[in-house]
């Protein structure tokens, strides 16, 4: 392997990319190692977001690559996936911040917004002058969100009045615009709305005492008589089926994030195994340590293969809900195992932030739950393979 290869990419999936794509990723990796890696442990411990990095992400060309921007076409699904992997192998929280903005918020705008709305908001979203958030989950609903939102939308002339609450909204405390989904009381269908910062009746409060993805600023949002113009209603969102188009797009992305988190933990464990000495030699020379490393590498390789296939199916336009569900469920479950083994390999030192493994260990717990729990995703797969629904 060359020095620019991924240590965890044992089968060389990265070689499926073009030379230019690999060169771009090398530049991103250098940026992440130089400017992001040195600050994430402190930011994680303090549960604070390093806002000074936001313009740097845009300068590095890490924003909105999945969508065309002027004369630049959208990049390949494979490159988008590997970008998410590269970010997650340094820090899953930063990857989640960008995933919410690039995937959920910009994806909602690209898939559900009108051409006028895209022209109005997306240029500043590409440069991160405007940061986006996505508000679907509610305090009393998570897995059953498709069956009906408690947040309501009532039309009054050319204005919509939103009432309700949202929870676990990533970027919600500082986003410039939040994509809010609510149930239209007139037809009982889900509609999407762009709520801009400072809109009366909108309030966001940081969720405290969170012990996974601590850098991500998750918010409780309340909407109290929040008035939004019809011009801010996403014109191509008329039911939950439309919302699911966005979720299908981003659920596959979580698989890549899980692979990245596994790789980050594996790299930390591999470095530790080479440096830590017991009984007069590096622990990497002990059979049980090599067994852990080999099991970690097996999980990474299997999950990366699935993520690569996800990108290929997305490129072909044949990617299905059940495939997204299986990829998300499988990869995050394997990530749970893998980061646990990384922490185990380090013994007592594994619980110290200095060695990174415990940060991945905690953060993967959130990846395992969001964008659909393992149980819900397995039921989506089960319905596809049996033809029988088993949800309730």
UniProtKB/TrEMBL annotation:
The keyword Plastid does not apply. Belongs to the acyl-CoA dehydrogenase family. PROSITE patterns: ACYL_COA_DH_2. It comes from the Bacteria. Residues 243-385 form the Acyl-CoA dehydrogenase/oxidase C-terminal domain. Residues 18-126 form the Acyl-CoA dehydrogenase/oxidase N-terminal domain. SUPFAM superfamilies: Acyl-CoA dehydrogenase C-terminal domain-like, Acyl-CoA dehydrogenase NM domain-like. The keyword Oxidoreductase applies. Keywords: FAD, Flavoprotein, Oxidoreductase. Residues 133-224 form the Acyl-CoA oxidase/dehydrogenase middle domain. Its cofactor is FAD. This is Acyl-CoA dehydrogenase.
């Amino acid at each position: 392997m060359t020095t620019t290869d991924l240590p965890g990419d044992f089968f060389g999936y990265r070689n499926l990319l073009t030379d230019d794509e690999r060169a771009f990723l090398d530049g991103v990796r250098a940026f992440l190692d130089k400017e992001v890696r040195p600050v994430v442990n402190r930011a994680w411990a303090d549960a604070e977001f390093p806002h000074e990095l936001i313009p740097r992400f845009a300068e590095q060309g890490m924003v909105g690559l999945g969508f065309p921007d002027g004369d630049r076409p959208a990049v390949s699904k494979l490159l988008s996936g590997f970008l998410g992997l590269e970010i997650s192998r340094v820090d899953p929280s930063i990857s989640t911040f960008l995933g919410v903005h690039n995937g959920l918020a910009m994806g909602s705008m690209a898939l559900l917004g009108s051409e006028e709305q895209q022209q109005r908001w997306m240029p500043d979203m590409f440069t991160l002058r405007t940061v986006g958030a996505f508000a679907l989950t509610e305090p009393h609903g998570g897995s059953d969100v498709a069956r009906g939102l408690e947040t309501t939308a009532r039309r009054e002339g050319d204005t919509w009045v939103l009432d309700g609450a949202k929870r676990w909204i990533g970027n919600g405390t500082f986003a410039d615009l939040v994509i809010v989904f609510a149930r239209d009381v007139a037809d009982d269908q889900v509609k999407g709305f762009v709520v801009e910062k400072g809109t009366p009746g909108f309030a966001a409060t940081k969720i405290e005492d969170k012990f996974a993805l601590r850098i991500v600023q998750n918010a409780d949002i309340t909407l109290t008589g929040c008035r939004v113009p019809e011009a801010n209603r996403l014109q191509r969102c008329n039911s939950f089926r439309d919302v699911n188009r966005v979720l299908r797009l981003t659920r596959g992305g979580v698989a890549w994030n899980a692979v990245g988190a596994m790789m980050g933990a594996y790299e930390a464990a591999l470095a530790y195994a080479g440096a830590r000495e017991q009984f007069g030699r590096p622990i990497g020379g002990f059979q049980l340590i090599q067994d852990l490393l080999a099991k970690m590498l097996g999980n990474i390789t299997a999950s990366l293969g699935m993520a690569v296939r996800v990108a290929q199916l997305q490129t072909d336009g044949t990617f299905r809900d059940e495939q997204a569900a299986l990829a998300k469920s499988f990869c995050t479950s394997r990530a749970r195992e893998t980061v646990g083994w990384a922490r185990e390999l380090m013994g007592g030192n594994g619980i110290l932030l200095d060695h990174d493994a415990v940060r991945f260990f905690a953060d993967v717990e959130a990846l395992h739950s969001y964008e659909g729990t393992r149980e819900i995703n397995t039921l989506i797969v089960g319905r596809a393979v049996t033809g029988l629904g088993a949800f309730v």
